[in-house]
Amino acid sequence: NSGAGLNYRTDGVVIEESFFESNDIGIRVVANSSLLLDERTHFAENNRDIHVDAGKISGEIVWRVPKYTALFLSGSTSIVRGARLEIGAGTVVKMAQNSLITVDGELIAVGTEESPVHITDLRDDSVGGDTNKDAEATAPDRGWWNSINIRESGSAEFDFADIGYSQNGIVRGGLGSFTLTNSIIHNVTGDALKLLAGYLSL
């Protein structure tokens, strides 16, 4: 199949006990769409397993996929005021080069000790598998993607989150709530955590 096994362009989808094989893209969704996959859904021989088209998130969105695969976020994405993105425990989000996540609404990335949330370089095969399907031809490196930028009244909660290979890890410039616990920010070229305004809980 030269297209997607599933191309979903609306509110959200729950996928259970499914198999996506030999597609250009296994599952393709827009950023403003929830995607929930169970552990019994599998992928094989796709050029990319899960592709999220970058854009604006304006609803209450949840991304939750098994940790043996990853979401590829294709470009810079914004969470607008009044919107919410929750990234579920064990979910791996791999970022396109120079892309960023801008938060004017709410970002929740809460994992567990056994299943942290990962936000990382597309080329990082250590979590979520070989997302760019090039075996060992490329490796992750610091500065690949930009940052998570929390602005204005935007708020964020990170617990058991692993954020790696960005230019800056998290930039917080607004006055909304911000919590960062049990988390790692690593392999950045700039500041791991840059605080420009407000209070926080660490």
Helix coverage percent of residues? under 10%
Number of helices, counting only DSSP H or I runs of 4 residues or more = 0
Assembly level? single chain
> Main sheet, how many strands, which sense, barrel?
8 strands, parallel
Q: How confident overall, as mean pLDDT?
A: 95
Work out the strand percent: 35-45%
Q: Tell the overall outline.
A: globular
Radius of gyration: 16 Å
The sequence of SSEs as H and E is EEEEEEEEEEEEEEEEEEEEEEE
Q: Biggest sheet: strands side by side, in what order?
A: 1-4-7-10-13-16-19-22
Q: Give the termini separation.
A: 47 Å
User: Would you tell me the structural class of the helices and strands?
Assistant: mainly beta
Q: How many β strands by DSSP?
A: 23
Low-confidence stretches: none
Q: Summary?
A:
The protein has 202 residues and is mainly beta. The chain is built from no helices and 23 strands.
List keywords for this structure.
single chain, 202 residues, mainly beta, eight-stranded parallel sheet, seven-stranded parallel sheet, globular
List the helices and strands and how they pair.
Elements: E1 4-8, E2 12-15, E3 19-21, E4 25-30, E5 34-37, E6 42-44, E7 48-53, E8 56-57, E9 60-64, E10 71-73, E11 77-79, E12 84-87, E13 92-95, E14 101-103, E15 106-110, E16 117-121, E17 148-150, E18 155-159, E19 161-164, E20 170-172, E21 178-181, E22 184-186, E23 193-195
Parallel strand pairs: 1-4, 2-5, 3-6, 4-7, 5-9, 7-10, 8-11, 9-12, 10-13, 11-14, 12-15, 13-16, 14-17, 15-18, 16-19, 17-20, 18-21, 19-22, 20-23
